[in-house]
Design a protein that fits this description.
Elements: H1 7-28, H2 31-38, H3 49-67, H4 70-75, E1 77-83, E2 86-93, H5 96-105, E3 114-117, E4 120-121, H6 127-143, E5 159-163, E6 166-173, H7 175-186, E7 193-200
Parallel strand pairs: 2-3, 2-4, 6-7
Antiparallel strand pairs: 1-2, 5-6
Helix pairs in contact: 1-6
Length: 202
């Protein structure tokens, strides 16, 4: 007799795979790359393949240009995320002038429709604080797997970045999906604030 697969049972292999990868990543301190990179390749992306490739190329080029400014790259802490033509800058720099300089370093790329500069002017945080933020990102990503009652919802479509206990959410979602995602992220232990950088399908 054929066994009927429930939404939960369909999610179980994905949950196990994600938890296994995240557990090994936590031990090595590489959660940000895993959550934003490998996990994103598991599900179906609403972006076209050309957009996915363009986003990755822009992000790589932006990092390359940013790293040419040694003061910015070595004495501050800035992350660059590109999703569907939206570029997000997060992290910390020591002066307002450096914040502006960081934005100038990554501005002007074809394919970037919007630049969101969320860099904070403050003393850069250390390794332990960054590891805490990576852990929060991992827990938020895992919590999204509990959304099993929304037809067509895929948690791997959400890009999650955490800085100073603030969670930044990117993705191409419906408004109903976005509300649910934000509510779940807010209730993850350690999260102090959630910032939406979504684009909506409706």
């Amino acid at each position: 007799m054929r066994t009927r697969m429930t939404p939960f049972s369909l999610r179980l292999p994905l949950r196990v795979a994600v938890l296994t990868v995240l557990a090994s990543a936590l031990l090595s301190g590489c959660v940000a790359a895993v959550v934003g990179g490998a996990a994103a390749g598991v599900g179906h992306d609403r972006r076209s393949w050309t957009t996915v490739i363009t986003d990755r190329n822009i992000q790589a080029s932006a990092y390359d240009n940013f790293n040419k400014d040694k003061e910015l790259a070595l004495k501050n802490n800035v992350s660059i995320v590109v999703y569907n033509g939206i570029m997000l800058l997060v992290g910390e720099v020591r002066t307002a002038e450096l914040k502006q300089r960081a934005e100038q370093r990554v501005s002007g790329y074809d394919g970037v429709r919007r630049l969101v500069n969320e860099i904070e002017v403050r003393e850069p945080e250390g390794f332990l604080s960054q590891r805490r933020d990576n852990s929060i990102t991992a827990h938020v990503k895992t919590a999204m797997l509990d959304i099993v009652d929304m037809p067509g919802f895929d948690p791997t479509r959400i890009n999650i970045t955490t800085v100073h206990r603030t969670v930044y959410l990117m993705g191409l979602l419906t408004r109903e999906e976005a509300e649910r995602v934000v509510e779940i992220a807010r209730n993850v232990s350690g999260v102090e604030k959630v910032v939406r950088v979504f684009e909506y399908q409706d």
